[in-house]
Amino acid sequence: MMNEKLLIVDDNGDLRRMLRISLGYGKYKMYEAATGAEAMQIAREQHPNVMLLDVMMPGELDGFQVCEMIKNDPDLKDIFVIILTALSSVGDRSEGNRVKADFYMPKPFSPLQLIEVIETRHKSASRPIGA
């Protein structure tokens, strides 16, 4: 039974497919977006519980901008945003904190760790950005 909605946002179709397969055990209704603009449109229409968000994408909105827009929107701010990105410097993580991402996971990442973060997100809401 699909109780929760999950939005995968990445311009890499193969990675979106891998995430769909890794997380596709029936718990989530899944949506996909390849750009920040698509992500915002789907977020507004579907109100996902979780968003897996890449940073570097084509178009005018990068992942940090999308996260900031989500977290500053009263209707969307409760979406649990996990940034999945190749950017892993201290400055990048700091930017993730600034835009109020709930979790920061650099690529390459462990699908098992990602599943754990998603499934324990309610318990970890008060813990600092991880990984």
SSE topology:
Elements: E1 4-9, H1 13-23, E2 28-33, H2 36-46, E3 50-53, H3 63-71, E4 80-85, H4 90-98, E5 103-106, H5 111-119
What does this structure look like?
The structure is a single chain. With 131 residues, the protein is α/β, with parallel strands linked by helices. The protein has one domain (4-117): Rossmann fold. The protein has five helices and five strands, in the order E-H-E-H-E-H-E-H-E-H. Helix 2 runs parallel beside helix 3 (63-71). The relative contact order is 0.16.
List keywords for this structure.
single chain, 131 residues, alpha/beta, Rossmann fold, five-stranded parallel β-sheet, 5 helices
Give the SSE order as H and E letters: EHEHEHEHEH
Strand content: 15-25%
Task: Estimate the global geometry from the Cα principal axes.
Answer: globular
Briefly, what CATH class? Alpha Beta
Q: Return the CATH topology.
A: Rossmann fold
Helix amount: 25-40%
Give the N-terminus to C-terminus distance in angstroms: 30 Å
Largest sheet: 5 strands, parallel
- The assigned CATH architecture is 3-Layer(aba) Sandwich
Number of helices: 5
Main structural class: alpha/beta
> Looking at this structure, what is the CATH superfamily?
Response regulator
How many E-type strands? 5
Average residue-wise pLDDT: 90
Radius of gyration: 13 Å
Q: What topology, given as strand order, has the largest sheet?
A: 2-1-3-4-5
Query: Unreliable segments (pLDDT under 50, ≥5 consecutive)?
Result: none
Number of domains: 1
